[in-house]
UniProtKB/TrEMBL annotation:
Extent of the WD repeats: 13-54, 58-89, 102-143, 211-249
Species for this entry: Staurois parvus
UniProt-recorded name of the protein: Cytosolic iron-sulfur protein assembly protein CIAO1 homolog
InterPro entries: WD40/YVTN_repeat-like_dom_sf (IPR015943), WD40_repeat_CS (IPR019775), WD40_repeat_dom_sf (IPR036322), WD40_rpt (IPR001680)
Keywords: Repeat, WD repeat
Pfam families from the UniProt entry: WD40
Length: 249
């Protein structure tokens, strides 16, 4: 019988003073972000010898930080918090700084996800809504040019009235553009951006609703990175489920 491979601890990173809630690799693999109930976001740098060094401790949030996610093409980091806000960070002059604060949710922001282009950011909240944020073209050009004023993101769509309890997670398919949510009402919902939607005032439609996807809260949803339409979900009921979604033509 072939012996099962075992995990080996390479290193342990310490420093947070409370529960660490989320961890995320930058696309380059050279940076790692962590966040915690201690209200902080830490950025770690990884060298060629796999040594980890904390290069910044960001204390921009006033409450627990629930989730961190990197921009798909840039070293731009986003975090979601119990303080009802989203923060964006980038490196400036060898230090990491908060370059934007996204406000609009009226309760805890649980999770967030960039679309494939990185031009849009979806956030989900205890206020039962999804929000879609977009950086305007002029601001994107400033960002490419290294401007210090590249911070403004605007909410271009609020999806309200669809969820009946806390929205715990959101996942944006980088293959199809489909947007999935996992909710405390045990349901999974999928949204699609309407064709011809105004980039500055986007509209999305609900295209799929699984009302009893699980028997308890849906904590996380994740699209497969290479197989279009394959969605995984997990729940307080102890189960994982896999769904095949067919986009409307």
């Amino acid at each position: 019988m072939k012996k099962k491979e075992e995990f080996e601890v390479v290193t342990t990173l310490e420093g947070h003073e409370n529960e660490v809630k989320s961890v995320a690799w930058a696309p380059s693999g050279n940076l790692l972000a962590t966040c915690s109930r201690d209200k902080s976001v830490w950025v770690w740098e990884v060298d060629e010898e796999e040594e980890y060094e904390c290069v910044s401790v960001l204390n921009s949030h006033t409450q627990d930080v629930k989730h961190v996610v990197w921009h798909p093409h840039q070293e731009l980091l986003a975090s979601a918090s119990y303080d009802d806000s989203v923060k964006l960070y980038r490196e400036e002059e060898d230090d990491w700084v908060c370059c934007a604060t996204l406000e609009g949710h009226t309760s805890t922001v649980w999770s967030l996800a960039f679309d494939q282009s990185g031009e849009k950011l979806a956030t989900c909240s205890d206020d039962k809504t999804l929000r879609i944020w977009r950086q305007t073209k002029a601001e994107e050009e400033q960002a490419v040019g290294g401007s210090k004023k590249d911070a403004s993101w605007k909410c271009v769509c609020t999806l309200t009235g669809y969820h009946t309890r806390t929205v715990y997670d959101v996942s944006w398919s980088h293959l199809t553009g489909s947007l999935a949510s996992g909710c405390g009402d045990d349901a999974i919902r999928i949204f699609e951006e309407d064709p011809g939607s105004d980039p500055l005032q986007s509209t999305f439609s609900l295209t799929a609703h699984m009302p009893r996807a699980h028997s308890q809260d849906v904590n996380c949803v994740a699209w497969h990175p290479k197989e279009p339409g394959l969605l995984a979900s997990c729940s307080d009921d102890g189960d994982m489920a896999f769904w095949q979604y067919q986009r409307p033509e």
